[in-house]
Design brief:
The chain is α+β, with helices and mostly antiparallel strands. It has 2 domains: 252 residues, Cathepsin D, subunit A, domain 1, CATH 2.40.70.10; 175 residues, Cathepsin D, subunit A, domain 1 (Beta Barrel), CATH 2.40.70.10. The protein is built from 6 helices and 26 strands. The strands form 5 sheets. The chain has a 6-stranded mixed β-barrel. The radius of gyration is 23 Å and the shape is globular. The structure holds 2-acetamido-2-deoxy-beta-D-glucopyranose.
């Protein structure tokens, strides 16, 4: 039957027998998707994951623990690739958003992760599922669900996380803390904000274990790889997304906006950097940092410290899921020294906070130095004081940055990004930013 006739026939039975499911995705799988020319304009509100019953210092402590584990995962991922060991995904993260899958749609809270690609949720039947706050997705109840055959380019995009064909494409994502999800790669309709997007590939996890995911039922990957939400939305979302993160010190009921497509653009006055893509880990968003300037003076950082090496070591990743910036020791040491000479107080032991450089004071009583991260092309990212010193407890003011052994990637953390509107443009290979009061967006 010709496609036009078949379409007419399907439309006819859809009108006549409304109880029959009429998903064009399913009926015409393999044919070009009719929704591909529909542009999306999405706004969702992200919440910071938080242990609400705890005070700020305790929550910060947990955030920092997670960040350190996350840093280890990123390192393990890079080393894993270098040594061809079991791949380890980053997962986890600081922000959650509500998304929904299927027809009718079933919503769940997903961790938003710029450090991984796959979108996944727990699926029935469960071989093993952890408890989640919302009902577990049941593909048998959704006519728009279909598994993805092996040989499909999205199955290939799983790379070494593809585990076989049983009978269709299966995956396993393993996280650094031993948690994992495994199941079928499938197409489904994704509802996000006020948009519905058909035929989004996601991991339908039948066997899941992970303490780290307890506040959500899955994850939405916003990395640069083929399976990430931004890659799959592609030109429908103009290959871009942006977010504006509210300060970590704001109340946990405040939300941070995340935009896809047309609505993601920044208004005038933004600065733009070129992004770097790593051939070793194509998922990560690498930014070309060239130096750090404190009170107008460039720090004495050995040349090449921040360069992304061909074996995947070095470089700087911008990440929404890491709380504080983590710098190669060769950059952190001169920064710490310069800050200490700029502040006329003796540092105190702040190790209880999880941070390294702390003073017994509050920001109201100090004039803090000016700190600028310098990027390729003379682009300066000037950090407001709140983006690098944090009141970790009532009387401990601490540098919201940490050092790490040389050779690992540095990470530009989310405290440093707060109150900046940040746009990731995967088509132009650029990152733009603009100081913005995020609660005004
Ligand atoms: C997101 O937050 C904004 C500002 O607080 C609010 O106006 C809007 O209704 C929220 N949107 C959704 C979908 O909850």
């Amino acid at each position: 039957m010709e496609r036009s006739k078949l379409l007419g026939f399907v439309v006819l039975i859809c009108f006549t027998i409304p109880t029959i499911s009429c998903s064009s995705d399913r009926l015409f799988s393999g044919w070009p998707k009719s929704s591909s020319d529909e542009n999306v304009k999405i706004r969702v509100n992200m919440t910071r994951r938080s242990e609400r019953e705890l005070g700020f210092s305790e929550r910060l402590g947990l955030d920092l623990d997670r960040s350190k584990k996350r840093m280890k995962k990123i390192e393990a991922l890079i080393r894993g690739q270098l040594d061809a060991e079991t791949p380890v995904e980053v997962g986890d993260g600081e922000f959650l958003m509500s998304v929904a899958l299927g027809t009718p749609s079933v919503s769940f809270e997903a961790i938003v992760d710029t450090g991984s690609d796959l979108i996944w949720t727990q699926c029935k039947p469960c071989k093993d599922c952890f408890s989640q706050p919302t009902p577990i997705f049941d593909p048998s109840k959704s006519p728009t669900f279909s598994t993805i055959p092996c040989g499909d380019s999205l199955c290939d995009a799983l790379g070494s996380t593809q585990t076989g064909c049983n009978p269709d494409c299966t995956f396993m994502y393993q996280y650094g803390d031993g948690s994992f999800t495994s199941g079928d790669l499938a197409y489904e309709t994704l509802s996000i904000g006020s948009s519905k997007v058909k035929g989004i590939a996601f991991g339908c996890g039948h066997d899941n274990e992970g303490q780290g995911f307890s506040q959500g039922g899955g994850l939405v990957g916003l990395g640069r790889g083929g399976l990430s939400l931004i890659s799959q939305l592609g030109s429908k979302a103009e290959n871009m997304f942006s977010y504006c993160l509210l300060p970590i010190t704001d109340s946990s009921s405040q939300t941070s906006p995340l935009f896809f497509g047309e609505g993601a653009s920044l208004s005038g006055g933004a600065k733009t950097l070129p992004l770097i893509k790593s051939s070793i880990i194509p998922t990560f968003w690498y930014i070309p940092i060239t130096g750090i300037t404190l009170n107008g003076k460039a720090l004495d950082i050995p040349p090449g410290t921040f360069d992304l090496q061909s074996d995947g070591s070095g470089g700087m990743i911008i990440d929404s899921g890491t709380t504080v910036t983590i710098l190669d020791q060769a950059a952190y040491s001169p920064l710490k020294e310069a800050i200490q000479s700029a502040i006329d107080l003796t540092p105190v032991d702040g190790s209880s906070t999880g941070l390294d450089l702390c003073y017994h004071t509050s920001s109201a009583h100090l004039t803090l130095p000016t700190l600028v991260f310098n990027f390729k092309g003379g682009v300066d990212y000037e950090l407001p004081a709140d983006n690098f010193f944090i009141q970790a407890s009532e009387n401990l003011l601490c540098l919201a940055m940490l050092g790490e052994p040389s050779g690992n990637p540095s990470i530009f953390g989310n405290i440093q990004q707060q109150n900046f509107h940040i746009l990731y443009n995967n088509a132009q290979n650029t990152l733009s930013f603009k100081p913005t009061k995020c609660d005004s967006l």
